[in-house]
Amino acid sequence: MADGIMSKAATMEIPINGNGDTGTLAEDDGLEQDLHQVMVSGPNLNETNIVSGGYGGTAEGIIPTGSIKGPGVRRSASSSSMAAEEATRGVAVEKLETVKKWGLNTYKCTKQMISERFGRGARTVDLDLEAQIELLRDTKRKYESVLRLARALTNHFYNMVQTQHALGDTFADLSQKSPELRDEFGYNAETQKLLCKNGETLLGAINFFVSSINTLVNKTMEDTLMTIKMYENARLEFDAYRSDLEELSLGPRDAAAVARIDAAQRQYQVQKDKYERLRSDVTVKLKFLEENKVKVMHKQLLLFHNAISAYFAGNQQQLEQTLKQFNIKLKPPGADKPSWLEEQ
Question: Quick one: pLDDT band at residue 76, thresholds 50, 70, 90?
Answer without folding.
Answer: low
